[in-house]
Design brief:
about 575 residues; alpha+beta; Beta-clip-like; 2 domains; four-stranded mixed beta sheet; globular; binds S-adenosylmethionine
Amino acid sequence: MNLDLSLNPPSIPISGPPTPSSLFDKDSSNLLEQQIHTLHLNDTHSSSEELTATPAPENPIAVAFLPNKGRCYLATREIQPQERIFVAESFGTTMCDPWLDCGICHDCWGRIPDRKAQIRLPRKPLSSTTLTVGTKKNPRSKKTESTVMVFCNETCLNRYGPLKADLICKVEEKIRRSWDIKQAAGPNGHWRVQTTIQPSTLIAGAGAATATLNSEASAPATHYSTLIPQALAVASTPLALSKLQDQDLTLFLNCVWNALDSLVAEQESFIGTLQQQQQHERLEIASGVPDKRAEALYPMLAKFLLEGNCKATIGSKTSDDDCETIRLLTDILYRRQVELDQEVAVHDTRETAEDEQDQEHGPRGVQPTFADLCSMQSNELVLFRQQLQQDADERTGAENEADTHLKGSKQDRTGPWRELLSILPNHLLSCFYVYLRIRDAYLLLDIESAWSPAPRLSIDSALFRNILYREVANSFGIRDSSDELLAFAIFPRASYFNHSCRPNVEKRRVGRHFEYWSTTTIGENEECCISYGDINPGRIERQRRLEDMYFFRCNCLRCIEEESVDNQ
Ligand SMILES: C[S@@+](CC[C@H](N)C(=O)[O-])C[C@H]1O[C@@H](n2cnc3c(N)ncnc32)[C@H](O)[C@@H]1O
């Protein structure tokens, strides 16, 4: 979901961009806990303190905290109408699927004037590896064969980062592969999810496999056979889930996602990696060569977890929307890895600090970091609650289809998972699917040793959640002059602009930047707000839209004024 944009070009010079404080460190594993702590701390502020922005004389705006809206931008001085107050840089972008090969540049999102001079990626034919599960060879879809990235010219490609572009094309190829789960599950199938082995023998193996398959060694995790009862002790019905306070819901979700990671690690440890033959030779596993087993691992996990439990289609193909999400995640993970590696040589050319003026697209803002992205507001809990409600609404008045289906299905082999899966909203199960898809793609690239020369990426559920639920309702739609949605991008430092139904700031896209311009005189310490889309309808309709799309009840001055008039 995205915030709407306006697309007018700039005409006057820039003031320096503000630097919002980063509340979180780069270790993603405890970000959720830290976020709760931070919000708790913020709750203890007095309102007079909260309304004072930290002075930053060179910047016209600074981040502050408002009790009923969270963080916001306040003016640090009087701002005149038509001042450019901020330039935002993205940290993660993804082109919408229909535009992948339609002459829109992946870097500047402009229409490519010279179609003959454009650069189309991948340049070389895609990997010859047969990406099928089971014995049947699946013909490549047209999507896989088509170009996945187009750039105006070398300048745009270099700014985007050729290594990253190449990597995203490789990932795209993997996520488009067909998951033929029926074939994989047959008697001659390559892999079956096994959950009958004693947990005590698995925990060490699971940790070892994770350490091998992911670049960061992780401590052996708690096994799902412990985590699932823990989750169900917190809530065992959708109704109980809907009543949980934030802290308990976070605990519940942590148990669920950690349980998924534990299952994934356990199954990976059965396969082992190519270097861990002894591990899986000890265990009785289905026949097949290791790489075939690995190819079948994630499709089978999806079948095990989702089939019969999820109303969303767990198809053999990844939906276009899911591909968009995975490209965005990969872009972000790539940039995070570059930060972690601090490999200047591999770094995109656009990242040089002294290059503050882009000849084609005007001035640049401060380059955001992964920590900036992690300090954005996570919408995981509100989204979860909304999805629970939606599922409940769908069930009202009709037979509880999901439950009937479960009871009559052959899903009993899911054992301890069954009860847990049956109470989760469908949307969360769809997120599992995207998570398994991305892990599948990365595992195949591991097996093919296909990362180099780009940095090797890995993901676990904590990282996945940290990124995914910050993208939700926080990413910006990139539109062309006819309002066509071309792409999505995350602008971490721009995400502190709150909404107002009477905004005093407007966004303008200039190439791949966003610029923020005052539309009126803004007094010192006054809040600077943009609008999240259409502000023309009446108050009730405006508020309903914001609640549905962005999960909050609007507390802007206009709504407060109109509400008090309505109540008189
Ligand atoms: C893009 S973020 C803006 C920054 C956010 N306040 C923060 O602390 O990170 C959007 C969120 O800010 C809050 N918000 C923005 N505009 C608001 C408004 N007019 N009334 C109430 N809350 C608002 C809501 O929580 C919303 O989900």
